[in-house]
Amino acid sequence: MILFDAHCHLQDERFSGRLPLIIDRARSAGVTRMSCCGCEESDWEAVRKIALEYKTVAPSFGLYPLNTARRSEKWREQLKSFLLSAPAAGVGEIGLDNSIESSENPEQEDVFIAQLRLARELQRPVTIHCRKAWGKLLEIIKREDGVKFGGMLHTYSGSPEMVRPFEELGLNISFSGAITRPGNRRGCASLRAVSEERLLLETDSPDIMPVGAEGGYNEPANLPLIARAAALLRGKPVEAVAELTFNNADRLFSFKTE
C-alpha cells in the first residue's frame, strides 16, 4: 500500500531536528509522497529547502488567511519570486477563515483573490483552507472562474451538498484525521459524497491527530489510519482507496507549466 499525504507542514518547529526520522517513519508506513505547504513569508524558505532535500516532497508557498495581517508590503512579489524559483511548487496554503472573531479581516478576501490570480498566471495548483466561510469561498472561486490549473480544499469541513459545486470548479476534496473521530457525521457524509477522481487524504500534520495515533503530535506516518477510516466509510478495500487517492494527488502535484 502506497499513500500520498496531500497536506502537511514539515517545516513546523515541532518537527525541528527530527525531520529525517519523520520522513523515514512515513516511508515505512507506505507514505511515499507528501505535499508540504508554507503559511507565511517567514517559512517559505524552510519549505523550499525541505523540498530540495527530499525529492518526494511537493512544495507549496502561500499566505494563510490568519496570517494576512502581518504580511509585508512586498508579500506578493516575494511569493511570486519563490514560485518562479521552484517550478514544481503550488500556491498554498491560502483561503478564508472566520473561525474566531478577530479573524474577520476584510483584507483576507483581497489576499485570497490575489493568490488565486497568481496561481492562474503561473499555471499552478492551489491548496485552500476554509473555516466558517464556505459560502463566501464558493462565491469568490465562482467569480474567479474556478481553478484552471487544479487545486484542493484541505481538511474539508463543509457540507456534503457543497462538494459537487466545488468539484465543478476544478477542486479536489481532501480529508484528514477528523474523519476518524466518533460523531463526525458531517465529515463522513461529505467524504462519501466526493467523486472518486476528486478524493484526497492528508494528515495536516503536526495537527489533527487521528484516533489511534500515538505521540505528542501528528505526522505523515499516521496517514494509514485515515486511509482505513476512509475505506470503511466508502465501503472499499483500504488498498483501493490508497491507490485511488495516491493517483489523484500525484496527478495534482505533478503538473507542468507551459
Describe the structure.
The chain is an alpha/beta fold. The protein has a single domain, classed as Alpha-Beta Barrel (TIM Barrel), CATH 3.20.20. The chain contains nine helices and eight strands. The protein has helices spanning 19-28, 44-53, 75-85, 107-122, 134-143, 163-168, 185-193, 223-234, 238-253, and strands at 3-8, 31-37, 57-61, 90-97, 126-131, 151-153, 171-175, 199-201. The protein has an eight-stranded parallel β-sheet with strand order 1-2-3-4-5-6-7-8, sandwiched between helices. The longest helix is centred in the middle third of the chain and has 16 residues, at 107-122. The two termini are 33 Å apart.
Order of helices and strands: EHEHEHEHEHEHEHEHH
Strand proportion: 15-25%
Q: Write out the strand line-up for the largest beta sheet, numbering strands in chain order.
A: 1-2-3-4-5-6-7-8
- What fold name goes in the CATH topology slot? TIM Barrel
Largest sheet features: 8 strands, parallel
Q: Class in CATH? A: Alpha Beta
Tally of individual helices: 9
The gyration radius over C-alpha positions equals 17 Å
Helicity, in percent? 25-40%
CATH architecture: Alpha-Beta Barrel
